[in-house]
Amino acid sequence: MAWLCHSHLPRRRRAARVARCCCDADVIVLDWRLPTISGIDLLPELRQRGVTLPVVFLTSHPELVNEELAFERGALDFVDKTRGVEILASRLRLVSASGKLEAHPQPEDRIVYGELALGPAIHRAYWNDVDIGLTAGEYDIVHFLVSSVGIYRTYREIYDVQHYEGFAAGHGELGFQTNVRSTIKRIRRKFCKIDPTFSEIQTLPALGYRWRGRIGRGGLVACQAQES
Fold this sequence. Notes:
The chain is α+β, with helices and mostly antiparallel strands and 228 residues long. Helix content is 38%, strand content 18%. Mean pLDDT is 77; it is low at 1-9, 103-107 and 215-228.
């Protein structure tokens, strides 16, 4: 894994320099704020130069709007600096393994729940054998919901899975609920891109979210769920 820092270079030259150095890297780690260009603006420049390596944002600005924008522009993960080095290293290993899997597909152990298959070793999820493209945090949430199928999980429980127990963000004491709703919407959109009829994540505002299904012969069988 290569770490690149060319903050002293002008904007155009830095994008070109990083692009040239990426041949020896597995993952690109971008800070949200760089001296002469923001990481979120550097990302599309790298893509324009043909750099296709997975990108992870490491930031001290974990606001929801920043996270949404990072994922919209193609980042695979968004890590708050307060999580610490161990969490960052773990997330980078997952992203790196994910990229290598795409380049060199290998057989993997999957846990199958009806149309859904989970690959815990590399944090990948598949719907009808199509990779959904979840980030590590999104995968953790889906796995958490599926592991307790039919049971509503609170906003706080889901937020703790997404970040860590006691983590606080957003506005006010219940600001984290907005973050959870936004993340669930993003997860649903990814499923619906593969299957427009997907409706397995059910909501009750007073309770939270659940993965709705029934256990049948051959494992979990998806059921239609009402959205709210």
